[in-house]
User: Fold this.
Amino acid sequence: MSAPTSDLSGFVYVTGSSRRLPARMVVRGDDLTLVGDDDTDLGRAPMSDVAFGDPLGRAARKLTFPDGTIFETHDHAAIDALIGPTHGATLHYLEAFNARLFAVVAVCLAAAWLLWRYGLDILTAAAIAMTPPVMIEQIDKGSMQTIDFVMAEPSQLSQDDKDKVSAIYKQLVAALPAGDQEKHSFDLLFRHMPGTGPNAFALPGGTMIMTDEFVDRFGEPDILAGVLGHEIGHVVEQHGLRRIYRSLSMYILVSFLAGDTGPLLEDIILEGNLLLSLSFDRHQESSADEFGLTLARDAGFDPAGLKVFFEEMAREYGASEPAQWMSTHPSSEERTKAIQDFIDSL
Assistant:
């Protein structure tokens, strides 16, 4: 009985030539013969002497004969039937475009979302726990040097005004648990910052900056206590550090998954991380509001002072505020309502 015969269509590159010729490979038992369109013999060899390349996506499968002649075919199934399944064939099957691929993509997207939603928080918490206090102090020191060099001037407030605000601030800090008081420096600094308006902000290590314009315009003790309590909340809940490390963690995760990000992907990550972090920043602002309201009450001030401040901000800047989803802060109107709801619950 004659040996079984089969044909595989494809193309051949004869050794020593770059010409691509239509051809077929005739399989007779363990012998492989390459035949051109005009039935010319283009090469032959035992199957054991032919090197079978691994399948790769939709690329043709390459078979290299001992004399260097290369045969290409897209008939992957026939090759697998000829030599049996290989590791490369299994990978090729998994890479093939079919309904299963949509499920794989969905799983990958879900995993990426879980990494972003929870993995970044885990990395951030670990980084904060391992950050020595001296490094946080250096962050504050370096930030103040930059602020003083770029945008701030020495305060022009009278010593009486500074003492008045400092007394309120010390009263708030004294109302904190002892552990929080010892953990942060809680230094209050005054600066004249033309063009920034009434403002107060905290650095990660506890350094607090209040502008002269804020003291001049909002000198009522309850308002000062509400705003300073809000900023103390940012320090105690480590919002500044969390923002820093969360931004860095995004680069770490993407680099781990994709390797070298490159300039284009870095821009995408930067802009995307900014947009995705807005909701986290709004949550931190709301959390700091609630912290400040509670602290102001515990220190003996009327927590409604913070509400008065945002009502004034809403009257002055409400029309020019960006949409809430585009902002790192809740809108003043929404913030005022949330503050009143929280005061009612105290």
In short: The CA atoms of residues 138 and 205 lie 8 Å apart. The first helix runs from residue 76 to 83.
